[in-house]
């Protein structure tokens, strides 16, 4: 349970720092257009911090970490979120600096989204296997 809480805490810090980075970079570059940096803050807080707080509550209720798929979910989801957020930050930074992100950035971001999807599927499979047998019949 501590690992899940620490993960949520780390995402809270990253989310807050990313908001500060967005504000300071756009101010320093006198940028007033649209950039993906504007949504990195909310993505990290929602898909990172809040998501893992929900997983923490599910762990308390269903002991998800006892299932062998939980570790796979945890690392694949985190890898997907890290790749996605890194590419959003890179693309947004390049936009603010007046450069094009290119197809490679979009492709790698797509890979991050695929990893997030696989992670979510693994979470739901794990949750389904951890539910008490009586509640599966309903």
Automatic annotation (TrEMBL):
<protein>
    <submittedName>
        <fullName>Pheromone shutdown protein TraB</fullName>
    </submittedName>
</protein>
<feature type="transmembrane region" description="Helical">
    <location>
        <begin position="70"/>
        <end position="90"/>
    </location>
</feature>
<feature type="transmembrane region" description="Helical">
    <location>
        <begin position="7"/>
        <end position="23"/>
    </location>
</feature>
<dbReference type="Pfam" id="PF11070">
    <property type="entry name" value="DUF2871"/>
</dbReference>
<feature type="transmembrane region" description="Helical">
    <location>
        <begin position="35"/>
        <end position="58"/>
    </location>
</feature>
<keyword id="KW-0472">Membrane</keyword>
<feature type="transmembrane region" description="Helical">
    <location>
        <begin position="102"/>
        <end position="127"/>
    </location>
</feature>
<keyword id="KW-0812">Transmembrane</keyword>
<dbReference type="InterPro" id="IPR021299">
    <property type="entry name" value="DUF2871"/>
</dbReference>
<keyword id="KW-1133">Transmembrane helix</keyword>
